[in-house]
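Morning!

This is the sequence you dropped in the shared folder:
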Amino acid sequence: MSKGAGTIRLTMAQALVRHLANQFIEIDGQRQRLCAGGFAIFGHGNVTCLGEALYEFRDELPVWRGQNEQAMAMAATGYAKQKLRRRFMFATASAGPGTTNMLTAAGVAHTNRLPLLLLAGDTFATRLPDPVLQQVEHFHQPALTVNDAFQSVARYWDRIMHPAQLVQSLPAAINTLLDPADCGPAFLGLPQDVQGWAWDYPLAFFEERVHRIRRQAPDAREIVDAADLIRSAKRPVMIAGGGVQYSGAEAELARFAEAHDIPVVETIAGRANLDFTHRLNCGPVGVTGSNSANHLSADADLIIAVGTRLQDFTTGSWTAFEGDAKLIGINVARFDAAKHLGLAVVGDAKLALDALGEALADHKSPEAWVKRASDEVTAWNAYVDDNVKLGNRPASYAQAVGAVNRLCDERDRVVASAGGLPAEVTANWRTRSPGTVDVEFGFSCMGYEISGAWGARMAQMETEPDNDTIAFVGDGSYMMLNSDIYSSVLAGHKIIIVLCDNGGFAVINKLQNNTGNASFNNLLADCRLAGEPFAVDFEAHAKAMGADGETISSMAEFDDAFARAKASQKTYIISMKVDAHEGWTGEGHAWWETGIPAISSRETVNAAREEAEATRAKFQRRGV
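The structure's back. Tokens below.
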């Protein structure tokens, strides 16, 4: 119902949905709706007003019903990552526990710099019915609600206390989601009464708008300084992170490396920047890296970090590089570009690499350094060949990774997160096509594997429906969050799940043992139990949620099982036992700083502490 030529009277919830539905983005010359829809579990805090508004736009903004609010928001995050941050989805929860369930997913999106719009019900702005159902009361601060907890995991946070506030706040949230430098989750708290309050909104608020991702050009002086530093280097190495893919700069990265003969190593997030066969792709770097990348990084006199936030798993807790090695940070985010006393080049990776290449002209690294890189890669490839091959040994994560790598289509997407599988995928995966690997190891969130794969599959179906999304998941993560198997079947978004059952949290048991501790409360066999530990029938469990699947007893059966999974029309699980103690990738690791007790009754712990202190002293690096 309109009032006046220039306004329309709507509830706040109706205005929010209508504005969202009229935002578009230009991708590769094509206009698409910016928000691809969202995920909702309705309750009293969001069903009567926001739910009513979403129903009116159910075709423009499709809403999918998840089974758990955390999983829904992680599915939205997986979608955004697959779409390279160019589109996003929302997740809405009622209030109280439904809202707090999304905190973990917000942490995933925040850590990984991914767009996620969170719309959460809140208490009443008037406070007339206080205390309301699911309200957590604070005696000293009545305005404080559980929604305030999101301030630590949101790039943008607001509580809409009057319908008029939406005119400023919602566009600001959307701009945050689209900003390459500030990208991350945007949170809007929606009090239950304010959702239904009406206001005369300007019609201009609902005009269609086409957004474009900003490309920030680097400062010319920073390019000159970086070029001078590269010319002076004898042993340069480039670290390519996930930001290379978000910039769409894979071709520029390859062209720059080739023109100047600079070896490239990849972070976990940047694992699929270059094809495995590229002559200057020297493998993954860091704690879960490769001998080739880590040996080169240890001897490098210059590190050129492109599109990476330089997490400790990349830097080996800052022990992976020579103490006097110089650092150049190329990043659209000033915060990341300027880390650890590096020379900052603040700008879009695609533009920065081209500008830096032009400034370097025909400069090339010494031939001996390039030859050294090639030799290191040859040695590492031989190790991976042996590590993933089948033989007379227990089934391992590495063998499962190698088998999928060998059997999948080059544009299939693999997803992993938390536990031992991120390390095994990172070390053993051989990229056949850029942008096909999602290893969520920023927040290292157990449970992302299946939910993130569901969201990724939704994105994949928009452009590559004939390819598959394949989730690697351990039994621990599966038991923590598996309900989106049901979601994916209901929604018709098929994913393939490779479940590696090692009887508990085996990689943390490994860390426990490696730091001198006794096995305790990680493997099921080492937990406080009422009886003997028993295996879950994961195949039966997945089938009970509508999926197809099978259990195999050895890697010799994997190829045929994977073919059946490929042929299936719906979500398919392959469940297999892997060894909890043997078969880990033993090479390629950089040091990792972990807290070890200064005093212990266990001599093995004391010895581990002494070794850690000695290692830290030996490899003291900038900023540590």
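Headline: The chain has 23 helices and 23 strands.

More detail when I'm at my desk.
O.
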